[in-house]
Every structure is written in C-alpha cells, then in structure tokens.
Amino acid sequence: MSYTVYINAIGKHLPGDPINNDAMEDFLGLINGQPSRTKARMLRQNGITSRYYALNKDQESTDSVAGMAAKAIRDTLQKANVPAAHIDLLAAGTTQNDLPIPGFASMVHAATEIPVCNISSFQSVCAAGMMAVNHVFQSIKNGDAQKAIACAADFPSRLFKAKRFAHQESVIANGLDLETDFLRWMLSDGAGAFYMSHQPNTTGFSFEVEWIDIRSHAHLFEPCMYTACAKMQTAV
Predict the structure, then answer these.
(1) What mean pLDDT do residues 199-226 have?
(2) 3-class secondary-structure state, position 207
(3) Is the pTM of this model over 0.70?
(4) Which of 8, 37, 225, 236 is the most exposed place for a label (fewest CB within 10 A)?
C-alpha cells in the first residue's frame, strides 16, 4: 500500500544576528593579517547582503551542527503543534558532522526531546538535506513511518575561519586560492527542518510531495568540493 506524503511544517535556526558584508571578516578573520583581495568582487557577483555565523569575533564556536539542527527541529514541532514523542523517524543531513563518529542523526537525536525512534544519517554537500527529505518521503509513502522529521544543518564558517589557514605554507607564500576564498564569501551557518506525515494539516496549508528525484553524476566528473586533503591523482 502506498500513502500520500505531506510537508506539514517547516522550521529553521539561524545563529546570532545577521552579519552584514562589511563585518564578515570580523568573524571569519583576516588571513595573514590581510583583507581578502577578492571579497568585494565576490559579494557584488553573488548579491548576498548578510550571513549568519555560529562564531564570535574570536573565531570561537557558539553552537554545534547538531545543536543548530535540534533548534530547527524544536521550531518545526512547535509550528506543527506536534509533541516530540510522536516522531517515529528522524533523518538528518550535513556536509560535516561535529565528530567523525557517531553518525550525524545520532548527534541530533541526542540533542532533541525525541524519544526512541528510527534514525538515518546522510553526508554530502548541497544534496545532504534533500537526501534526508527523500528518505522520509519514501519511508512514509511505503508505510514504514507516519510522523517524521527531515533536517539538515551546516557550519561552514568553522572551516573557513582564518585560524584554519594561518600555518599553511602555501597560503603564507601565495595567499588563499581563489576557489576557497570564493566559498568564504558565499556560505552561511544554520539549520532547517521539515515535519512530514501521511496526513494533511486539519487547518492551514500542507504541501503534498508527489515525487523526489535524486541522481548522482559523480562517475563523470572529478570532485569539485572536498576537504581534509589536497587533491591527488586517483588510480583507475
């Protein structure tokens, strides 16, 4: 039997106050004590006027990836007026977890008031959140879950703060490469969550999910976004 799936509520968490473009380097820091040479051009091109950072001006973390996801889940459940105890599936996606182990969904689950439930972790870059949504969609559609949360969170500023680059020989000698500097002025911290179920809301809007299609083309291209090592030639 196949069930209809609905998005019943959407929540979010954006850490701190919005940071305007002029103040971004106050939080991310100056690399080698010098302002970015490409910042102004990047900001003109992307058109974004403010960011949210889970960092203070000393580049210290003020939250965690799992913590931001948990706050987005609380916001979602409050909007849905659904007790945390009713959730039977939690799917969570991120680019990089707070720890290598355990899985992201375990970290998020531990930070919420949701009792024993099914969990699934998804790690990717931009697609991680949609992977979590698709898993919830398929689970409810197939009758494996009835009330579920799909969430995603990311903390990119933690990867792009100046302290990360201060002792890298190539950065000291040549400055930050263009691709990395580009991402410093693009990305923001935060989290979002969907409450999804097999029934529409009795009042207000519900969004019926008809289909989700996710396809990988990773076999056709080299990695364009990666971390933890320099790109190396891969043996085939």
Answers:
(1) 92
(2) strand
(3) yes
(4) 236
